[in-house]
Amino acid sequence: MFLLLCHRLSTMALDEFRAAIHHGNLADAISNVQQRTPQSFNSHTLSIAVTGESGAGTSSLINAMLGLRAGDEGAAETGMLDTMTEPMAYPDPFLPGVTFWDLPGVGTSYFPLNTYCEQLNLSRFEFFIIVGSQRFRSEHARLVREIQRMGKRFYFVRAKADMDLDASRRQRPSSYNEERILQQIREDCRGGLAAEGVGHPKVFVVSSWEPNRYDFPLLQQTLQTELQRLKRHAFLLSLPAVASPIINQKKATLKGEIWKTALFSCLLAAIPVPGLAFLCTFFSFRKHLFQYYSSFGVDDRSLSALARQVGNPTRELTAVMTSLGTTPVTALKLLSDSVGAAVMVAEYSWKRLPIFGAMVSGGVVLVTTSFMLRKCLASVADDTQRVLSKALEAEREKAS
Predict the structure, then answer these.
(1) C-alpha Rg value of the chain to the nearest Å
(2) Tens of pLDDT along 81-101?
(3) What's CA 244's distance to the chain center, in Å?
(4) What is the mean pLDDT of residues 168-191?
(5) Average pLDDT, integer, range 346-375
(6) Distances from the Cα of 94 to the Cαs of 31, 219, 221, in angstroms?
């Protein structure tokens, strides 16, 4: 009953988020996310990809996390040879909504390092556990870079600690110190992660054969403790995709109105008044530029409200915008440069052949107005997506 209630609240919250995006109120959309309680994410799912070099022990780690042994019903297949060609899903019976995905090993002939991330489409997973059984390697570094590029999180698990300890005990029995060796392994992993720019990495040294020893209990406890936070992080990452069809639908609707504006400007431009063609295009573009920014919620006032909502300077939001600008000055300069020459040709034709000049003038304004408005609309829509992603990124960082 509790999970059902959480699911209904989550659905309502998503509907409110969509409505805010539809009405061009990005600040309200972010506010809706901020007001959600940690408990409201209990009904959300979390897909955890378990990956690492071939033979690192990803399958054994998943079995240990699920409380299973190799050969048990529902257990991941283990073996010396990595014959897996597709990720395999293993729902966690203890953590609600959590599914572990056992991925093929990186660096094999089937999944070489350079194409591994693309072949397995790592972006579909929301959280990662990178498993290594040796020193920090290039395969681990590549995975870390890709996960960070996607803005996602991970744990680094150094598996097969029992084998390292046994080898050290045999090689140096007189100076053997278990805790010192475990700490050296942790520091090696942290050093490799720090070299990739990872601050405060979560590193666990485990043995899947001894889930009650080393850092295995800490790994399970940490995942359970951070589960709501991780689900919220995954939820925030999913919101740009939720907003995208709404933004695209609004763009399509506004795009369908452009022909009316362009036709009206064309008819006005056909009137034999010098300079009228340029003025028609100029003021039409100016009007619609403001309309687009306001409609999508990326005008100056809306951006200021959004910046206050996420607690970041407005300049951090405008920095990701690549359209003509939030003020018309730059836009109108570009318009003047692009339209001016064409209008001069039209007006020259007018003096020689009035009827032909009217047709040319109207045609120039029709094409130019349509082109510039379409270009502006597409740029503003793209900027809306970027600004929203930046605002959600700020929310994710606050929860880190």
Answers:
(1) 29
(2) 566 678 999 999 888 889 999
(3) 12
(4) 88
(5) 61
(6) 32, 14, 12
